[in-house]
Write a structure and sequence with these properties.
The structure is a single chain. By secondary structure, the chain is mainly α. Helix content is 75%, strand content 0%. It has helices at residues 9-13, 17-33, 38-78. Helix 2 (17-33) runs antiparallel to helix 3 (38-78). The radius of gyration is 20 Å and the shape is rod-shaped.
Length: 84
Amino acid sequence: MTDDGTTTAAATGTLGYEQARDELIEVVRRLEAGGTTLEESLALWERGEELAKVCRRWLEGARARLDAALARPEELSDAGGGTD
């Protein structure tokens, strides 16, 4: 994070889900606490939006992996498991 509360997009892209989530929680806490300038609040808001996108991408990826794993048993049983 730079002095103004932002990071580069490249650094955001390397965050794991838990890291992004924890930082997002801290950003929200700081915004809710108040006491920041308008410029600081805007920087925090923008950072929060970036972090939310990172979390959303991780969750969408996890959902896709889960859906794929759940679909596999059906594919196996449909591929000739039964003898009708």
